[in-house]
Amino acid sequence: MLPFFSSLYYEMETENKEVIPKQEISEEDEFKGMLWAGLQRTVPQEPELKEACDSKDNLEEHKGRVVWMRLRQSPPSQGGVRKEEGGCEYTKCEKSCDLSSAPVTSCIETIGEGSQRSDLYDKSFGQDSEPLTHQNVNNEKKPYECSECDKAFSRRSYFIEHQRIHSGEKPYDCSECGKAFRWYSDVVSHQRIHRGEKPYQCNDCGKAFRKSSDLIQHRRVHSGEKPYECSHCGKVFGRSSSLIRHQRIHSGEKPYECSACGKAFRDISTFINHQKIHSGEKPYECDECGKAFSRSSSLIEHQRIHSGEKPYECNECGKAFRWCSDLVPHLRIHSGEKPFECNECKKSFRKSSDLILHQRIHSGEKPYECNQCGKAFRKRSDLIQHHRIHSGEKPFKCNECEKAFRTRSDLVQHLRIHSDEKPYECNECGKAFRQNSDLIQHQRIHSGEKPYECNKCEKVFCRNSSLIRHQRTHNRD
After folding, report:
1. Which intervals hold domain C2H2-type (predicted)?
2. Which of 139, 208, 213, 247 is most buried, most CB within 10 Å of its CB?
3. Exposure on the CB side of residue 324, measured as CA atoms within 13 A
């Protein structure tokens, strides 16, 4: 509690206690004491506030800080916020108070300059109460400058709180789990996690939140409000943090750098997930199969394999997918969009992964090598299939004849023998085939195309198998 009002407050608390001798107090000081005591009675008795303060003295000191903030608040014309019916109208001041830098008495003296004291008292505590006048904060000097980042502050308390960002100091501990926080307000809202308390409820959908700021952001879902606009491209956002992250795309800023590998990231969540690669930490485990993941989102996606859930459905054909990333390229089948173009041959693809694989044709890159025979492949899936040659594994079995295959595609083609399905039909003559490769070879009869040329006699063929048979005649000679 502030020194000046300490004696005044305890004089009001002398019932059933030892009487403290009263000091000589002027009429002006007596009024200020009444104003202070009255304002303190308007501070709500929140349960988490009582729990957070380890003594009555600390509780009253915090109430004093709330009063200080109210004394510094703006009139309604500067953006006042109406509290619930029956309460008072005042502006929520986002600034914190520095009790050591300016006495409350000086602030009280500036309130309602030129007005009668009785009017001020009535306005401060009456049922239809009006807010107290805020000082011109914009014109305040900023004498406290941070040596780390040169940011300046008008008050010593703001400066001290800011320095915790650089020092990493977190002086407020949760009594339940020991987690530490830089700011008192953060520990108060954190403790609601343990209590399960969510006091801020949306009037539209009933969803509840621990923080009032979360409720404000949520309401924008219903209103569609996106007040934060990018000055570069005009894109708008519902949250200021989303705008800040977006602006890093334009600036190229990547402030979060991994100390292990030097890789940098635009947002902290991606950075935290990346660090788990180095630590090997996988805190999210599947209850069904025990597989562990570094991200909760990866676990949620994995669990769809067990549940069979496919929440992403195509509006065109009704096909459903487990992952949104699969639905997006599927939609391009209907639209015909192929946004990923090869710089070498201008061939376009629906997926970026397909373009990457294609570019290996031009570069000759084959990053997947067999540790048995040294053969290399462009695709990881090709290497997995190749490994089955060495292992003799044939995991894909036909239910009709028990024949087994190394690849799923071979099984699918085989099943068409039993079903007599021939899905590939020639547009020229109507002849149908089980395999797409057979149709392609057949179409060369109509087109006259013969892409396979003998390098010894320059004879050409429409099938690769025909060229191989022909080359054997040269080998005999």
Report:
1. 144-171, 172-199, 200-227, 228-255, 256-283, 284-311, 312-339, 340-367, 368-395, 396-423, 424-451, 452-477
2. 247
3. 3
